[in-house]
């Protein structure tokens, strides 16, 4: 089997396609959560904490070196606000994924707990049952 045929067989497996769909949807969901945190959640939180914009919260390790208006060396900072937003993004995404998995597990459990229909009898079983009933008579 050629390498292209092997790759095609690998790429067309159901799990690989499912993974690709999951990554695409996860990326889109991540953008939604990031927008929610940046545009909806953090502004009121910033107001509650004294009007701070979380994106601008940083520790300056080294001031910028300037020559007039020109920046020779930019400031070296630890961006705590950006990190806080990333942590909140992660927590929201993790909680959402947890809830989806929890719902899926409960649905799977209900499916497993549901009584299954008795298996259909084969032609041999039907014939043997008729013979047995005829012998009883």
Task: Kindly describe this structure.
Strand 2 and strand 3 form a beta hairpin. The protein is mostly helical and 137 residues long. The protein has one domain: Large-conductance mechanosensitive channel, MscL, domain 1 (Non-ribosomal Peptide Synthetase Peptidyl Carrier Protein, Chain A, Orthogonal Bundle). Helix content is 67%, strand content 10%. The chain has helices at 3-11, 14-48, 80-113, 123-136; strands spanning 59-62, 65-67, 70-73, 76-78. It has 4 helices and 4 strands, in the order ααββββαα. A two-stranded antiparallel ribbon has the order 1-4. The chain has a two-stranded antiparallel ribbon with strand order 2-3.
Task: Map the helices and strands.
Layout: H1 3-11, H2 14-48, E1 59-62, E2 65-67, E3 70-73, E4 76-78, H3 80-113, H4 123-136
Antiparallel strand pairs: 1-4, 2-3
Helix pairs in contact: 2-3
Primary descriptors:
Non-ribosomal Peptide Synthetase Peptidyl Carrier Protein, Chain A, 67% helix, mainly alpha, single chain, 4 strands, 137 residues, two-stranded antiparallel sheet
Order of strands, widest sheet:
1-4
Mean pLDDT: 84
Provide the β-strand percentage band.
5-15%
- Would you tell me which CATH topology applies? Non-ribosomal Peptide Synthetase Peptidyl Carrier Protein, Chain A
The computed structural class is mainly alpha
Q: What is the chain-wise order of helices and strands?
A: HHEEEEHH
Coarse morphology: elongated
Largest sheet: 2 strands, antiparallel
Concise overview:
The chain is mainly alpha-helical. The chain has helices at 3-11, 14-48, 80-113, 123-136, and strands at 59-62, 65-67, 70-73, 76-78. The chain is 67% helix and 10% strand.
């Amino acid at each position: 089997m050629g390498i292209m045929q092997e790759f095609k067989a690998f790429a067309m497996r159901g799990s690989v396609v499912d993974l690709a769909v999951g990554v695409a949807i996860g990326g889109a969901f991540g953008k939604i959560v990031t927008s929610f945190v940046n545009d909806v959640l953090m502004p009121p939180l910033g107001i509650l904490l004294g009007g701070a914009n979380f994106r601008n919260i940083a520790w300056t390790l080294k001031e910028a070196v300037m020559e007039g208006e020109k920046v020779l060396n930019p400031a070296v900072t630890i961006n705590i606000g950006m990190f806080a937003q990333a942590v909140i993004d992660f927590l929201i995404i993790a909680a959402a994924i947890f809830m989806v998995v929890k719902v899926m597990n409960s649905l799977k459990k209900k499916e497993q707990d549901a009584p299954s229909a008795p298996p259909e009898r084969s032609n041999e079983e039907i014939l043997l049952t008729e013979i047995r009933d005829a012998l009883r008579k």
